[in-house]
Amino acid sequence: MSAKNPKVAVVGATGAVGREMLEVLAQRQFPASEVVAFASSRSAGGTVEYAGGELTVRELKEDSFAGFDLALFSAGGATSEKFAPLAAKVGCVVVDNSSAWRMDPKCPLVVPEVNPRDLEWHKGIIANPNCSTIQMVVALKPLHDEAKIKRIVVSTYQAVSGTGQKAIVELETQTARLMNGQEVIPQVYPYQIAFNCLPQIDVFLDNGYTKEEMKMVNETKKILGDDTIRVTATTVRVPVFFSHSESVNIETEQKLTVEDVRRILSQSPGIVVADYPEKKIYPMPIDAAGQDDVFVGRIREDESIDNGINLWIVADNIRKGAALNAVQIGEELIRRNLLRVPK
Ligand code: NAP
Ligand code: 3JN
């Protein structure tokens, strides 16, 4: 092992995000000296696919991280809270997919296309933002740099894969049953998700917003490094398997035309502009699924205000929204020679 060829732990390797992490590591030929899969005792001893072969899953334990350089976590907040500090303590840098560390002022919250320099002040734990936040800030950062965004109004259309493997099965099962005239009993969501939309993602908070909505508000400000941006969000679960879609309205200090936005975004990393209304070309979740880029279309001036733009932003929530972003952070740490826990 070395900082250039790290020994990598994938924690939560049997889950929807963990499996995708293994796929992304292999596809991008991440320069790992070794990759080890961890999960709970429930799946220890089983196998997961990696690079055309299989890895035997190990049970995550308190002393699991000795000798590792990098750990990619996607096993939920409770696991991250307990195990990420243990990893960092023995010199293993953590990239954590849960919300456990995102708003901790000691932990950078990073999207490599947006704020890679925040990696410079990491102390061992780096947080990966929420999937809905990631795709939005990738698209908005270049516009913020050009024209300073004052306000963001976002509504999301989120795929069930954001809830994990069990929700994918729930949508499949409910769809098949309803098509056969059978009753459905919701198990993962409070209501039927097939042929329906649920304006609730995660729990409701005292202010009437859901936790997912407030994640978008708070994480966006931290990543863009600007507390003055006003953000409001409505997050909705829709019966789509993969890729989140977002209708985003921004108000900027300087005027941006539609042509400006198309030009700026098409020159920005990680973004594909798919905006040819005359040909009925716009981003859709079925096209974004399995892709790495953030797709932007339906770019229009908001004619109800002076400096407003409407955008439609779509990305694969499990890839750019979680696994890919985490692996890109790992790559960026290696590139910047930051894959070590500072003393
Ligand atoms: P999932 O399909 O349910 O997978 C959960 C994974 O965590 C499984 O590998 C599970 O292992 C493992 N796990 C659970 N408890 C554990 C424990 N005590 N010790 C070790 N491993 C444990 O969920 P998912 O969709 O992959 O999501 C996992 C987490 O990633 C979420 O809870 C969330 O924090 C984060 N996430 C983030 C985003 C984002 O927006 N960036 C999106 C989706 C998910 P077993 O097989 O042993 O149960
Ligand atoms: O619902 C979605 O589309 C994204 C879900 C993300 C998620 C699910 C369970 C727990 C998170 C997250 O990453 O914010 C968490 C968490 O709080 O860690």
Features:
2 domains, globular, 14 strands, 343 residues, six-stranded mixed β-sheet, single chain, Dihydrodipicolinate Reductase, domain 2, Rossmann fold, binds ligand 3JN, six-stranded parallel β-sheet, binds NADP nicotinamide-adenine-dinucleotide phosphate
Would you give an account of this structure?
This protein is α/β, with parallel strands linked by helices. It folds into 2 domains: 136 residues, NAD(P)-binding Rossmann-like Domain (Rossmann fold), CATH 3.40.50; 185 residues, Dihydrodipicolinate Reductase, domain 2, CATH 3.30.360.10. The protein has 8 helices and 14 strands. The chain has a 6-stranded parallel sheet, sandwiched between helices. A 6-stranded mixed sheet has the order 10-9-11-14-13-12. Helix 1 crosses helix 8, helix 3 packs parallel to helix 5 and helix 3 packs across helix 8. The longest helix has 17 residues. The chain is globular, with a radius of gyration of 20 Å. The protein starts with 6 loop residues before the first strand and ends in an 8-residue tail after the last helix. The structure holds NADP nicotinamide-adenine-dinucleotide phosphate and ligand 3JN.
